[in-house]
Write a sequence for this structure.
Protein backbone atom coordinates (compact mmCIF):
# COMPACT_ATOMS: atom_id res chain seq x y z
CA UNK A 1 0.00 0.00 0.00
CA UNK A 2 1.47 3.34 -1.02
CA UNK A 3 -1.44 5.73 -0.58
CA UNK A 4 -0.96 8.13 2.37
CA UNK A 5 -4.67 7.82 3.20
CA UNK A 6 -6.32 4.40 3.47
CA UNK A 7 -9.64 3.15 4.89
CA UNK A 8 -9.44 -0.36 6.33
CA UNK A 9 -12.48 -2.25 4.90
CA UNK A 10 -12.49 -4.71 7.79
CA UNK A 11 -12.49 -2.27 10.69
CA UNK A 12 -13.65 0.99 9.15
CA UNK A 13 -10.55 2.67 10.62
CA UNK A 14 -8.60 5.32 8.78
CA UNK A 15 -4.85 5.02 8.22
CA UNK A 16 -3.00 8.32 7.66
CA UNK A 17 0.64 7.50 7.13
CA UNK A 18 1.62 5.57 10.23
CA UNK A 19 -1.35 6.73 12.29
CA UNK A 20 -4.50 4.62 12.63
CA UNK A 21 -7.74 6.21 13.83
CA UNK A 22 -10.16 3.50 14.92
CA UNK A 23 -13.31 3.01 16.95
CA UNK A 24 -12.01 0.64 19.58
CA UNK A 25 -9.06 0.14 21.82
CA UNK A 26 -7.51 -2.69 19.85
CA UNK A 27 -7.33 -0.71 16.64
CA UNK A 28 -6.40 2.65 18.15
CA UNK A 29 -2.71 1.93 17.81
CA UNK A 30 0.02 2.89 15.38
CA UNK A 31 0.17 1.04 12.04
CA UNK A 32 2.71 0.76 9.28
CA UNK A 33 1.83 0.84 5.59
CA UNK A 34 1.10 -2.89 5.59
CA UNK A 35 -1.67 -2.31 8.15
CA UNK A 36 0.28 -4.24 10.78
CA UNK A 37 -0.29 -2.94 14.29
CA UNK A 38 2.84 -1.32 15.68
CA UNK A 39 2.24 -0.55 19.36
CA UNK A 40 4.70 1.59 21.32
CA UNK A 41 7.77 -0.39 22.36
CA UNK A 42 8.54 -1.15 25.97
CA UNK A 43 10.87 1.84 26.26
CA UNK A 44 8.13 4.24 25.19
CA UNK A 45 9.51 4.81 21.69
CA UNK A 46 7.23 5.34 18.69
CA UNK A 47 9.16 5.69 15.45
CA UNK A 48 12.23 6.58 17.48
CA UNK A 49 10.51 9.27 19.57
CA UNK A 50 10.53 8.70 23.31
CA UNK A 51 6.95 9.66 24.09
CA UNK A 52 7.31 8.87 27.79
CA UNK A 53 10.29 11.17 28.20
CA UNK A 54 8.62 13.86 26.12
CA UNK A 55 5.55 13.78 28.34
CA UNK A 56 7.67 14.06 31.45
CA UNK A 57 9.51 17.10 30.11
CA UNK A 58 6.20 18.91 29.60
CA UNK A 59 5.15 18.42 33.21
CA UNK A 60 6.25 19.67 36.57
CA UNK A 61 8.57 17.73 38.84
CA UNK A 62 7.16 15.04 41.09
CA UNK A 63 8.41 17.00 44.11
CA UNK A 64 6.38 20.03 43.03
CA UNK A 65 3.34 17.83 42.46
CA UNK A 66 3.66 16.30 45.92
CA UNK A 67 4.06 19.72 47.51
CA UNK A 68 0.94 20.90 45.73
CA UNK A 69 -1.24 18.00 46.89
CA UNK A 70 0.26 17.92 50.39
CA UNK A 71 -0.80 21.43 51.35
CA UNK A 72 -4.52 22.14 51.59
CA UNK A 73 -6.23 25.31 52.77
CA UNK A 74 -9.79 25.61 54.02
CA UNK A 75 -11.93 28.14 52.12
CA UNK A 76 -15.22 29.74 53.02
CA UNK A 77 -18.07 28.18 51.09
CA UNK A 78 -20.89 30.37 49.83
CA UNK A 79 -23.27 28.51 52.17
CA UNK A 80 -23.16 25.48 54.46
CA UNK A 81 -25.03 23.32 51.96
CA UNK A 82 -24.33 19.68 51.18
CA UNK A 83 -21.91 20.27 48.30
CA UNK A 84 -21.68 17.07 46.27
CA UNK A 85 -19.87 17.88 43.02
CA UNK A 86 -17.49 20.47 41.57
CA UNK A 87 -16.06 21.01 38.10
CA UNK A 88 -13.87 23.56 36.27
CA UNK A 89 -14.48 25.41 33.01
CA UNK A 90 -11.19 26.43 31.42
CA UNK A 91 -12.98 28.53 28.80
CA UNK A 92 -14.87 30.59 31.40
CA UNK A 93 -12.18 30.35 34.09
CA UNK A 94 -14.76 29.41 36.68
CA UNK A 95 -15.48 26.63 39.18
CA UNK A 96 -19.07 25.46 39.58
CA UNK A 97 -20.28 23.36 42.52
CA UNK A 98 -23.75 21.90 43.10
CA UNK A 99 -25.45 20.81 46.32
CA UNK A 100 -28.11 18.46 47.61
CA UNK A 101 -29.43 20.96 50.16
CA UNK A 102 -30.12 24.67 50.51
CA UNK A 103 -32.94 27.01 49.60
CA UNK A 104 -32.47 28.79 46.29
CA UNK A 105 -28.69 28.60 46.61
CA UNK A 106 -27.71 25.07 45.59
CA UNK A 107 -25.10 26.32 43.14
CA UNK A 108 -21.97 28.31 43.89
CA UNK A 109 -19.25 29.61 41.59
CA UNK A 110 -15.72 30.87 41.99
CA UNK A 111 -13.05 32.28 39.66
CA UNK A 112 -10.18 31.13 41.87
CA UNK A 113 -11.46 28.49 44.30
CA UNK A 114 -11.18 31.00 47.14
CA UNK A 115 -14.04 33.44 46.77
CA UNK A 116 -17.39 31.74 46.23
CA UNK A 117 -20.74 33.23 45.26
CA UNK A 118 -24.16 31.62 45.72
CA UNK A 119 -26.22 31.11 42.56
CA UNK A 120 -29.86 30.20 42.12
CA UNK A 121 -30.45 26.70 40.70
CA UNK A 122 -33.25 25.87 38.29
CA UNK A 123 -34.95 23.99 41.15
CA UNK A 124 -34.12 22.93 44.70
CA UNK A 125 -33.44 19.34 43.68
CA UNK A 126 -30.75 17.12 45.16
CA UNK A 127 -28.04 17.97 42.63
CA UNK A 128 -25.40 15.25 42.59
CA UNK A 129 -23.10 15.90 39.63
CA UNK A 130 -22.05 18.72 37.31
CA UNK A 131 -19.83 18.72 34.22
CA UNK A 132 -18.70 21.16 31.51
CA UNK A 133 -18.79 20.82 27.73
CA UNK A 134 -16.16 22.99 26.03
CA UNK A 135 -17.67 22.37 22.60
CA UNK A 136 -21.17 23.48 23.63
CA UNK A 137 -20.03 26.04 26.22
CA UNK A 138 -22.48 24.42 28.60
CA UNK A 139 -22.66 23.20 32.19
CA UNK A 140 -24.96 20.24 32.84
CA UNK A 141 -26.04 19.06 36.28
CA UNK A 142 -28.12 16.02 37.25
CA UNK A 143 -30.15 15.26 40.40
CA UNK A 144 -31.58 12.42 42.45
CA UNK A 145 -34.84 14.26 43.13
CA UNK A 146 -37.38 16.37 41.25
CA UNK A 147 -40.33 15.66 38.99
CA UNK A 148 -39.40 15.60 35.34
CA UNK A 149 -36.70 18.23 35.91
CA UNK A 150 -33.71 16.29 37.16
CA UNK A 151 -31.39 18.03 34.70
CA UNK A 152 -30.42 21.70 34.55
CA UNK A 153 -28.08 23.54 32.20
CA UNK A 154 -26.21 26.84 32.21
CA UNK A 155 -23.92 28.66 29.81
CA UNK A 156 -22.21 30.69 32.51
CA UNK A 157 -22.75 28.89 35.83
CA UNK A 158 -24.96 31.75 36.99
CA UNK A 159 -28.28 31.39 35.16
CA UNK A 160 -29.72 27.88 35.16
CA UNK A 161 -32.57 26.31 33.18
CA UNK A 162 -34.50 23.18 34.12
CA UNK A 163 -34.52 20.39 31.53
CA UNK A 164 -36.69 17.29 31.25
CA UNK A 165 -34.81 14.17 32.30
CA UNK A 166 -35.38 10.89 30.43
CA UNK A 167 -36.83 9.38 33.61
CA UNK A 168 -37.18 10.34 37.27
CA UNK A 169 -34.32 8.08 38.30
CA UNK A 170 -31.75 9.01 40.90
CA UNK A 171 -29.13 10.41 38.53
CA UNK A 172 -25.76 10.32 40.26
CA UNK A 173 -23.19 11.27 37.64
CA UNK A 174 -22.85 12.96 34.26
CA UNK A 175 -19.94 13.36 31.85
CA UNK A 176 -19.26 14.77 28.37
CA UNK A 177 -17.59 12.97 25.42
CA UNK A 178 -16.09 15.54 23.05
CA UNK A 179 -15.44 13.05 20.29
CA UNK A 180 -19.06 11.85 20.28
CA UNK A 181 -20.62 15.23 21.17
CA UNK A 182 -22.60 13.39 23.82
CA UNK A 183 -23.54 13.73 27.47
CA UNK A 184 -24.01 10.48 29.41
CA UNK A 185 -25.60 10.22 32.86
CA UNK A 186 -25.94 7.17 35.12
CA UNK A 187 -28.34 6.44 37.99
CA UNK A 188 -28.66 4.23 41.05
CA UNK A 189 -32.39 3.65 40.50
CA UNK A 190 -34.67 2.68 37.63
CA UNK A 191 -35.53 -0.54 35.84
CA UNK A 192 -33.34 -1.27 32.85
CA UNK A 193 -32.96 2.44 32.12
CA UNK A 194 -30.22 3.62 34.44
CA UNK A 195 -28.43 5.45 31.64
CA UNK A 196 -29.54 8.49 29.66
CA UNK A 197 -27.79 10.38 26.87
CA UNK A 198 -28.11 13.79 25.26
CA UNK A 199 -26.34 15.55 22.36
CA UNK A 200 -27.09 19.01 23.75
CA UNK A 201 -28.02 18.75 27.44
CA UNK A 202 -31.65 19.55 26.61
CA UNK A 203 -33.12 16.46 24.96
CA UNK A 204 -32.44 13.25 26.89
CA UNK A 205 -33.01 9.62 25.90
CA UNK A 206 -33.17 6.65 28.26
CA UNK A 207 -30.71 3.82 27.54
CA UNK A 208 -30.54 0.24 28.79
CA UNK A 209 -27.91 -0.22 31.46
CA UNK A 210 -25.86 -3.43 31.62
CA UNK A 211 -27.42 -4.23 35.00
CA UNK A 212 -29.67 -2.51 37.51
CA UNK A 213 -26.79 -1.73 39.85
CA UNK A 214 -26.33 1.49 41.81
CA UNK A 215 -24.32 3.32 39.17
CA UNK A 216 -22.71 6.35 40.81
CA UNK A 217 -19.93 7.52 38.50
CA UNK A 218 -19.18 7.62 34.78
CA UNK A 219 -16.24 8.95 32.74
CA UNK A 220 -15.06 9.07 29.11
CA UNK A 221 -11.70 7.92 27.71
CA UNK A 222 -11.16 9.69 24.39
CA UNK A 223 -8.11 7.59 23.49
CA UNK A 224 -10.15 4.38 23.82
CA UNK A 225 -13.46 5.86 22.64
CA UNK A 226 -15.00 4.30 25.72
CA UNK A 227 -17.33 5.20 28.55
CA UNK A 228 -16.75 3.47 31.89
CA UNK A 229 -19.20 3.49 34.80
CA UNK A 230 -18.76 2.06 38.30
CA UNK A 231 -21.36 1.04 40.88
CA UNK A 232 -21.86 0.70 44.62
CA UNK A 233 -23.85 -2.53 44.23
CA UNK A 234 -23.87 -5.68 42.13
CA UNK A 235 -22.18 -9.06 42.28
CA UNK A 236 -18.93 -9.23 40.33
CA UNK A 237 -20.28 -6.75 37.76
CA UNK A 238 -19.79 -3.33 39.31
CA UNK A 239 -18.28 -1.95 36.10
CA UNK A 240 -19.92 -1.40 32.72
CA UNK A 241 -18.48 0.00 29.49
CA UNK A 242 -19.86 1.46 26.29
CA UNK A 243 -18.31 2.77 23.05
CA UNK A 244 -21.27 5.03 22.32
CA UNK A 245 -23.33 5.55 25.48
CA UNK A 246 -26.11 3.37 24.07
CA UNK A 247 -24.86 -0.21 24.20
CA UNK A 248 -23.45 -1.20 27.59
CA UNK A 249 -21.53 -4.30 28.64
CA UNK A 250 -21.05 -5.54 32.20
CA UNK A 251 -17.44 -6.00 33.29
CA UNK A 252 -15.96 -7.84 36.25
CA UNK A 253 -14.83 -5.45 38.96
CA UNK A 254 -11.68 -6.19 40.97
CA UNK A 255 -13.92 -6.79 44.00
CA UNK A 256 -17.41 -5.98 45.19
CA UNK A 257 -16.55 -2.77 47.02
CA UNK A 258 -18.82 0.25 46.88
CA UNK A 259 -17.14 2.03 43.96
CA UNK A 260 -17.99 5.71 44.03
CA UNK A 261 -15.77 7.40 41.47
CA UNK A 262 -13.80 6.64 38.32
CA UNK A 263 -11.51 8.78 36.16
CA UNK A 264 -9.23 8.36 33.13
CA UNK A 265 -5.59 9.35 32.63
CA UNK A 266 -4.78 9.90 28.95
CA UNK A 267 -1.07 10.13 29.73
CA UNK A 268 -0.93 6.79 31.58
CA UNK A 269 -3.71 5.13 29.54
CA UNK A 270 -5.26 4.11 32.82
CA UNK A 271 -8.62 4.11 34.56
CA UNK A 272 -8.62 4.54 38.34
CA UNK A 273 -11.63 3.90 40.57
CA UNK A 274 -11.97 4.48 44.32
CA UNK A 275 -14.37 2.96 46.86
CA UNK A 276 -15.89 3.68 50.25
CA UNK A 277 -15.63 0.07 51.43
CA UNK A 278 -13.08 -2.74 51.37
CA UNK A 279 -10.05 -3.74 53.36
CA UNK A 280 -6.78 -2.36 51.98
CA UNK A 281 -8.17 -2.58 48.44
CA UNK A 282 -10.25 0.55 47.95
CA UNK A 283 -8.59 1.35 44.62
CA UNK A 284 -8.73 -0.54 41.34
CA UNK A 285 -7.11 0.23 38.00
CA UNK A 286 -7.59 -0.83 34.39
CA UNK A 287 -5.81 -0.05 31.10
CA UNK A 288 -8.92 -0.81 29.02
CA UNK A 289 -12.01 -0.69 31.27
CA UNK A 290 -12.35 -4.46 30.98
CA UNK A 291 -9.64 -6.00 33.11
CA UNK A 292 -9.42 -4.52 36.59
CA UNK A 293 -6.74 -4.96 39.26
CA UNK A 294 -7.17 -4.28 42.98
CA UNK A 295 -4.69 -1.78 44.44
CA UNK A 296 -3.79 -1.00 48.04
CA UNK A 297 -5.37 2.26 49.17
CA UNK A 298 -3.38 4.59 51.42
CA UNK A 299 -6.01 4.16 54.14
CA UNK A 300 -9.38 2.47 54.50
CA UNK A 301 -11.23 5.77 54.34
CA UNK A 302 -14.51 6.35 52.57
CA UNK A 303 -13.08 7.49 49.22
CA UNK A 304 -15.76 9.24 47.18
CA UNK A 305 -13.97 11.10 44.38
CA UNK A 306 -10.80 10.84 42.30
CA UNK A 307 -9.36 13.04 39.55
CA UNK A 308 -6.25 13.20 37.36
CA UNK A 309 -3.95 16.22 36.94
CA UNK A 310 -2.08 15.71 33.67
CA UNK A 311 0.26 18.63 34.28
CA UNK A 312 1.33 17.17 37.63
CA UNK A 313 1.14 13.51 36.56
CA UNK A 314 -0.85 12.89 39.71
CA UNK A 315 -4.10 11.28 40.84
CA UNK A 316 -5.83 12.87 43.84
CA UNK A 317 -8.68 11.29 45.80
CA UNK A 318 -10.77 12.67 48.67
CA UNK A 319 -12.80 10.92 51.36
CA UNK A 320 -15.67 11.49 53.77
CA UNK A 321 -14.03 9.56 56.62
CA UNK A 322 -10.58 9.49 58.20
CA UNK A 323 -8.67 11.54 60.75
CA UNK A 324 -6.51 14.24 59.18
CA UNK A 325 -5.86 12.04 56.17
CA UNK A 326 -8.87 12.50 53.91
CA UNK A 327 -6.71 13.05 50.83
CA UNK A 328 -4.51 10.53 49.06
CA UNK A 329 -2.35 10.87 45.95
CA UNK A 330 -0.64 8.61 43.46
CA UNK A 331 1.65 9.19 40.45
CA UNK A 332 0.61 5.89 38.82
CA UNK A 333 -2.65 4.66 40.37
CA UNK A 334 -0.78 1.88 42.15
CA UNK A 335 1.21 3.48 44.96
CA UNK A 336 -0.90 5.76 47.15
CA UNK A 337 0.09 8.18 49.93
CA UNK A 338 -2.16 9.90 52.44
CA UNK A 339 -2.11 13.70 52.65
CA UNK A 340 -3.39 15.99 55.36
CA UNK A 341 -6.78 17.46 54.53
CA UNK A 342 -7.63 21.03 55.49
CA UNK A 343 -10.37 19.74 57.81
CA UNK A 344 -12.07 16.45 58.61
CA UNK A 345 -15.15 17.33 56.58
CA UNK A 346 -17.04 14.86 54.42
CA UNK A 347 -15.25 15.61 51.16
CA UNK A 348 -17.43 14.55 48.26
CA UNK A 349 -15.75 15.79 45.08
CA UNK A 350 -12.39 17.02 43.80
CA UNK A 351 -11.35 18.54 40.47
CA UNK A 352 -8.22 20.00 38.85
CA UNK A 353 -7.91 23.40 37.15
CA UNK A 354 -4.84 23.34 34.94
CA UNK A 355 -5.05 27.05 34.16
CA UNK A 356 -4.85 27.89 37.88
CA UNK A 357 -2.66 24.89 38.72
CA UNK A 358 -5.04 24.17 41.55
CA UNK A 359 -7.12 21.35 43.05
CA UNK A 360 -10.50 22.24 44.57
CA UNK A 361 -12.57 19.93 46.76
CA UNK A 362 -16.07 20.41 48.19
CA UNK A 363 -17.79 18.80 51.19
CA UNK A 364 -21.26 18.18 52.58
CA UNK A 365 -20.22 18.93 56.17
CA UNK A 366 -18.28 21.61 58.02
CA UNK A 367 -19.02 25.11 59.27
CA UNK A 368 -18.13 27.82 56.78
CA UNK A 369 -15.26 25.73 55.42
CA UNK A 370 -16.84 23.30 52.98
CA UNK A 371 -14.23 24.05 50.32
CA UNK A 372 -10.52 23.37 50.36
CA UNK A 373 -7.84 24.16 47.80
CA UNK A 374 -4.39 22.80 47.23
CA UNK A 375 -1.22 24.80 46.91
CA UNK A 376 -0.24 26.12 43.48
CA UNK A 377 1.17 23.15 41.62
CA UNK A 378 3.37 24.58 38.88
CA UNK A 379 4.40 27.70 37.01
CA UNK A 380 3.66 26.44 33.51
CA UNK A 381 2.03 27.79 30.40
CA UNK A 382 -1.41 26.82 31.66
CA UNK A 383 -1.02 28.67 34.96
CA UNK A 384 -2.81 31.75 33.65
CA UNK A 385 -6.49 32.42 33.44
CA UNK A 386 -7.70 32.05 29.89
CA UNK A 387 -9.35 34.83 27.95
CA UNK A 388 -11.12 34.76 24.64
CA UNK A 389 -8.71 35.25 21.69
CA UNK A 390 -10.44 38.53 20.91
CA UNK A 391 -9.61 39.68 24.44
CA UNK A 392 -6.06 38.39 24.83
CA UNK A 393 -3.93 35.88 22.94
CA UNK A 394 -0.33 34.76 22.49
CA UNK A 395 0.78 34.14 18.92
CA UNK A 396 3.05 31.33 17.74
CA UNK A 397 5.95 33.81 17.69
CA UNK A 398 5.39 34.79 21.30
CA UNK A 399 3.73 38.13 20.66
CA UNK A 400 0.99 39.08 23.14
CA UNK A 401 -2.13 40.74 21.80
CA UNK A 402 -4.72 42.53 23.93
CA UNK A 403 -7.78 43.45 21.94
CA UNK A 404 -6.27 42.01 18.76
CA UNK A 405 -5.86 38.50 17.38
CA UNK A 406 -2.84 39.52 15.26
CA UNK A 407 -0.23 41.02 17.61
CA UNK A 408 2.59 42.65 15.63
CA UNK A 409 4.94 43.21 18.59
CA UNK A 410 5.88 41.56 21.86
CA UNK A 411 2.98 43.51 23.35
CA UNK A 412 0.31 44.84 21.00
CA UNK A 413 -2.63 46.68 22.57
CA UNK A 414 -5.59 47.57 20.37
CA UNK A 415 -7.51 50.21 22.27
CA UNK A 416 -6.92 52.62 25.12
CA UNK A 417 -4.09 51.98 27.58
CA UNK A 418 -4.23 53.22 31.17
CA UNK A 419 -1.00 53.06 33.17
CA UNK A 420 -0.60 53.79 36.86
CA UNK A 421 3.10 54.31 37.44
CA UNK A 422 6.10 54.31 35.15
CA UNK A 423 6.95 52.35 32.01
CA UNK A 424 10.39 50.77 32.29
CA UNK A 425 12.66 50.26 29.25
CA UNK A 426 15.81 48.19 29.85
CA UNK A 427 15.06 48.50 33.57
CA UNK A 428 14.97 52.28 33.27
CA UNK A 429 11.78 54.34 33.55
CA UNK A 430 10.38 55.51 30.26
CA UNK A 431 7.65 58.10 29.79
CA UNK A 432 5.58 58.92 32.85
CA UNK A 433 2.58 61.14 32.46
CA UNK A 434 0.30 63.26 34.59
CA UNK A 435 -2.89 64.47 32.95
CA UNK A 436 -5.04 67.13 34.54
CA UNK A 437 -8.76 67.37 33.92
CA UNK A 438 -9.75 69.24 30.81
CA UNK A 439 -11.30 71.79 33.11
CA UNK A 440 -11.70 71.92 36.82
CA UNK A 441 -11.59 74.00 39.92
CA UNK A 442 -8.27 74.24 41.69
CA UNK A 443 -8.63 72.75 45.14
CA UNK A 444 -6.00 74.47 47.25
CA UNK A 445 -4.12 72.82 50.06
CA UNK A 446 -4.72 75.45 52.72
CA UNK A 447 -1.62 74.41 54.67
CA UNK A 448 0.77 75.56 51.96
CA UNK A 449 -1.50 77.23 49.41
CA UNK A 450 -0.72 74.75 46.64
CA UNK A 451 -2.45 72.20 44.49
CA UNK A 452 -1.01 68.66 43.99
CA UNK A 453 -1.33 67.30 40.47
CA UNK A 454 -0.19 63.79 41.29
CA UNK A 455 3.27 62.25 41.40
CA UNK A 456 5.81 60.46 39.19
CA UNK A 457 8.41 58.03 40.51
CA UNK A 458 11.95 59.02 39.54
CA UNK A 459 15.46 57.59 39.95
CA UNK A 460 18.47 59.42 41.34
CA UNK A 461 21.21 60.49 38.91
CA UNK A 462 19.18 60.02 35.72
CA UNK A 463 18.61 63.00 33.44
CA UNK A 464 15.01 63.39 32.34
CA UNK A 465 13.31 65.40 29.66
CA UNK A 466 10.36 67.25 31.14
CA UNK A 467 7.63 68.86 29.10
CA UNK A 468 4.14 70.08 29.68
CA UNK A 469 1.38 72.57 29.20
CA UNK A 470 -0.25 74.35 32.14
CA UNK A 471 -2.99 76.95 32.32
CA UNK A 472 -4.44 78.67 35.33
CA UNK A 473 -6.95 81.53 35.53
CA UNK A 474 -8.08 83.58 38.48
CA UNK A 475 -11.81 84.12 38.45
CA UNK A 476 -12.56 86.18 41.54
CA UNK A 477 -11.06 87.76 44.62
CA UNK A 478 -8.62 90.61 45.23
CA UNK A 479 -6.00 88.89 47.40
CA UNK A 480 -2.45 89.95 46.57
CA UNK A 481 -0.24 86.97 45.87
CA UNK A 482 2.76 85.60 43.97
CA UNK A 483 2.25 82.67 41.55
CA UNK A 484 4.86 79.91 41.44
CA UNK A 485 5.29 76.74 39.43
CA UNK A 486 7.32 74.52 41.75
CA UNK A 487 9.35 71.48 40.63
CA UNK A 488 10.75 70.42 43.97
CA UNK A 489 7.78 69.14 45.88
CA UNK A 490 7.67 65.43 46.68
CA UNK A 491 10.34 63.11 48.11
CA UNK A 492 12.79 63.37 45.20
CA UNK A 493 15.46 66.06 45.37
CA UNK A 494 16.24 68.21 42.32
CA UNK A 495 19.99 68.54 41.77
CA UNK A 496 19.95 70.36 38.44
CA UNK A 497 17.29 71.72 36.15
CA UNK A 498 17.10 73.89 33.09
CA UNK A 499 14.16 74.52 30.86
CA UNK A 500 12.78 77.11 28.53
CA UNK A 501 9.22 78.22 28.44
CA UNK A 502 6.77 79.95 26.22
CA UNK A 503 4.92 82.02 28.77
CA UNK A 504 1.88 84.19 28.21
CA UNK A 505 -0.24 86.22 30.55
CA UNK A 506 -3.54 87.85 29.81
CA UNK A 507 -5.27 90.56 31.75
CA UNK A 508 -4.49 94.10 32.78
CA UNK A 509 -1.94 93.55 35.55
CA UNK A 510 1.72 93.68 34.46
CA UNK A 511 4.29 91.06 35.48
CA UNK A 512 6.80 92.25 38.04
CA UNK A 513 9.16 89.29 37.70
CA UNK A 514 10.91 87.65 34.79
CA UNK A 515 9.27 87.49 32.30
CA UNK A 516 7.41 90.78 32.32
CA UNK A 517 4.46 92.06 30.41
CA UNK A 518 1.48 90.36 28.91
CA UNK A 519 3.22 89.32 25.66
CA UNK A 520 4.44 85.80 24.79
CA UNK A 521 8.01 85.49 26.06
CA UNK A 522 10.76 82.87 25.69
CA UNK A 523 12.98 82.55 28.73
CA UNK A 524 15.46 80.25 30.47
CA UNK A 525 15.52 78.85 33.96
CA UNK A 526 18.74 77.12 35.01
CA UNK A 527 19.41 75.09 38.18
CA UNK A 528 16.34 76.32 39.92
CA UNK A 529 13.46 74.23 41.05
CA UNK A 530 10.85 76.95 41.16
CA UNK A 531 9.62 79.49 38.59
CA UNK A 532 8.17 82.80 39.77
CA UNK A 533 5.49 83.78 37.33
CA UNK A 534 3.93 86.96 38.71
CA UNK A 535 3.46 89.06 41.78
CA UNK A 536 1.02 91.37 43.52
CA UNK A 537 -1.96 90.53 41.34
CA UNK A 538 -5.12 92.23 42.49
CA UNK A 539 -7.31 92.32 39.40
CA UNK A 540 -9.75 89.72 38.35
CA UNK A 541 -9.48 87.84 35.05
CA UNK A 542 -5.72 87.23 35.18
CA UNK A 543 -4.72 83.98 33.42
CA UNK A 544 -1.33 82.31 32.93
CA UNK A 545 -0.30 79.90 30.20
CA UNK A 546 2.95 77.95 30.48
CA UNK A 547 4.32 75.73 27.66
CA UNK A 548 7.68 74.33 28.74
CA UNK A 549 10.35 71.78 27.87
CA UNK A 550 13.68 71.12 29.46
CA UNK A 551 15.79 68.72 31.45
CA UNK A 552 15.94 67.85 35.10
CA UNK A 553 18.19 65.63 37.24
CA UNK A 554 17.37 64.37 40.72
CA UNK A 555 19.85 64.14 43.59
CA UNK A 556 17.71 61.50 45.24
CA UNK A 557 15.06 59.16 43.96
CA UNK A 558 11.45 59.16 45.00
CA UNK A 559 8.31 60.96 43.95
CA UNK A 560 8.39 64.05 41.73
CA UNK A 561 5.30 66.19 42.12
CA UNK A 562 5.01 69.45 40.16
CA UNK A 563 2.51 71.96 41.55
CA UNK A 564 1.10 75.44 41.33
CA UNK A 565 1.88 77.39 44.51
CA UNK A 566 0.80 80.72 45.92
CA UNK A 567 2.42 82.94 48.49
CA UNK A 568 -1.03 83.59 49.86
CA UNK A 569 -4.20 81.73 49.10
CA UNK A 570 -6.25 83.57 46.49
CA UNK A 571 -9.66 84.87 47.37
CA UNK A 572 -11.34 83.06 44.50
CA UNK A 573 -10.95 79.51 43.19
CA UNK A 574 -8.93 79.48 39.93
CA UNK A 575 -9.62 77.10 37.05
CA UNK A 576 -6.97 75.05 35.28
CA UNK A 577 -6.04 72.39 32.76
CA UNK A 578 -2.81 70.82 31.51
CA UNK A 579 -0.44 67.89 31.39
CA UNK A 580 3.15 67.06 32.36
CA UNK A 581 5.38 64.24 31.10
CA UNK A 582 8.81 62.97 32.12
CA UNK A 583 11.16 60.73 30.10
CA UNK A 584 14.78 59.63 30.72
CA UNK A 585 16.15 60.75 27.36
CA UNK A 586 19.29 62.89 27.21
CA UNK A 587 18.34 66.05 25.31
CA UNK A 588 20.41 67.33 22.41
CA UNK A 589 20.94 70.91 21.32
CA UNK A 590 20.58 72.38 24.80
CA UNK A 591 23.11 74.72 26.38
Amino acid sequence: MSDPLYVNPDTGGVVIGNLYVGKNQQNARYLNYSSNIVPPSADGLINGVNITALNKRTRTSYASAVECASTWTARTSAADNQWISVCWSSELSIFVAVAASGTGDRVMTSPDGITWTSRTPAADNNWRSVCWSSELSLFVAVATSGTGDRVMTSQDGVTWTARTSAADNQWRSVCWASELSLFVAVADSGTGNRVMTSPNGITWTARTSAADNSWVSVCWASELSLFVAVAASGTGNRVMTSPNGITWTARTSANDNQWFSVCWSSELSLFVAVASTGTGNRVMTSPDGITWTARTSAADNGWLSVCWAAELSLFVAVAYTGTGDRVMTSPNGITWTTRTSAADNQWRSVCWAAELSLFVAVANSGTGDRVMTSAIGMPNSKSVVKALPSQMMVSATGNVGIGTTNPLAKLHVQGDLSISGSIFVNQQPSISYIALPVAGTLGLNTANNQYPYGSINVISGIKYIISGVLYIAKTAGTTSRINYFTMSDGTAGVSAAQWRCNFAVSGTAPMNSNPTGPALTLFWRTNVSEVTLSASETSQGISHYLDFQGEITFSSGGTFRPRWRYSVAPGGAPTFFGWISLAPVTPTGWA
